[in-house]
Design brief:
By secondary structure, the protein is of the alpha+beta class. It is 15% helix and 32% strand. It has two helices and eight strands. The protein has an eight-stranded mixed β-sheet with strand order 3-2-1-8-4-5-6-7, covered by helices on one side.
Length: 143
């Protein structure tokens, strides 16, 4: 299983592996969004981070019904900010219920219940989270 968030479209996609092929399972629209299409560079900027992360754990006691913690900042993020002379990247980024955010990914209560159920079946393994500013599958990447 893999989660793909596309900030520009404000969606969370769930993908699963079946017979060595990736298949689309379901799309969940964000119920709120904050920040801009750019990476999270410090705490308090209300940004969804951009990069490749993992689900760290399922939070059954969330203030936002249920939530899944994303492994932000990761080992890629930390050296970048150190090189730039910054220190506090923030943290506590979750995919969660409800409909408000200051940097998390809210998808609503019924939807997070579904996602948490799916994740609970996989959580003994690794669930990658690809946080993308836009859908690179639909446009050329220049560089």
């Amino acid at each position: 299983m893999a989660f793909v968030t596309i900030k520009q479209k404000e969606t969370l996609e769930i993908w699963g592996e079946l017979n060595s092929n990736w298949v689309f399972i379901k799309n969940y629209p964000f119920t709120a969004c904050s920040g801009q299409l750019r990476p999270k560079v410090k705490e308090g900027v209300k940004q969804i981070p951009e990069g490749i992360y993992e689900i760290e754990h399922l939070n059954l006691y969330s203030l936002f019904y249920l939530s899944l913690k994303i492994s932000y900042p990761n080992e890629f993020d930390k050296p970048i900010v150190e090189k730039q002379g910054r220190s506090n990247l923030g943290g506590d980024i979750f995919i969660r219920g409800k409909n408000k955010t200051v940097g998390c990914i809210p998808i609503g209560d019924d939807e997070i219940e579904e996602v948490c159920y799916l994740a609970s079946k996989i959580l003994s393994g690794r669930i990658p989270v690809y946080n993308c500013p836009k859908d690179f599958r639909k446009s050329a990447v220049v560089g």
